[in-house]
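Journal club side-thread
Mid-discussion, someone asked how the predicted structure for our own chain would compare to the paper's figures. Pasting it here so we can look after the session.
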Amino acid sequence: MKSNIFFEAMVKRHKLQFVYGFDTVTLEPYYLSTTKKGKKVIYGRVNNSNEIRMFEYEKIVNIKVLKHTKFSPIIPIYYSMN
């Protein structure tokens, strides 16, 4: 389910907002992948910064697609569904 939400947001270039740990994160999603340990992750640019970060699926809760906001990627977006 999370993969579908993230993939659709990437394709339509919608920002995401979710809770990760104790922080609320607004993210421009760029890449879906898995780690060497087999954990699903999403990479993206954290809002209002130039930082690209990785977030583990299992730690992401309360996902909202911000359909009223679009973004222009600063790096290529990869549509890989692993």
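Post-session note: Residues 27 and 46 are 5 Å apart (CA to CA).
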